[in-house]
Amino acid sequence: MIEALSYEFIQNALIAGILVSFISGIIGSLIVANRMVFLVGGVAHAAYGGIGLALFTGIPLFLGTSLFAVLAALFMAYITIKERDKTDIFIGLIWAVGMAIGIILVDLTPGYNVDLMSYLFGSILAVDHEDLYFMAALFVLILFVLAFWYKDILAVSYDSEYAAIRGINVKLFFTIILILSALSVVVAIKVVGLILVIALLTIPIYIAQYLCSTLYSMMFVSGFVATLFTLVGLWLSYTYDLTSGACIILVAALSLLFFMLWQKRS
Amino acid sequence: MGSGPKILSQWHKLLQNNNDNPTIIDIKHLSYAIKKEEILKDINLEVKQKDFLVIIGPNGGGKSTLLKLILGIYPSKSGTISIHYADATNKLDIIGYVPQNTNINLNFPIKVIEVVMMGFASKKTFFGYAKEDLDLANKLLEQVGMQKYAHQKIGSLSGGQRQRVMIARALFAHPKILILDEPTSSIDVEGQAKIYDLLQELNKEITIIVVSHDLSVILNYATKVAHINKKLSFHDMSSFESSFDTQKEHICEVELLEMLGKIK
Question: Which domain CATH number covers A24?
Answer without folding.
Answer: 1.10.3470.10
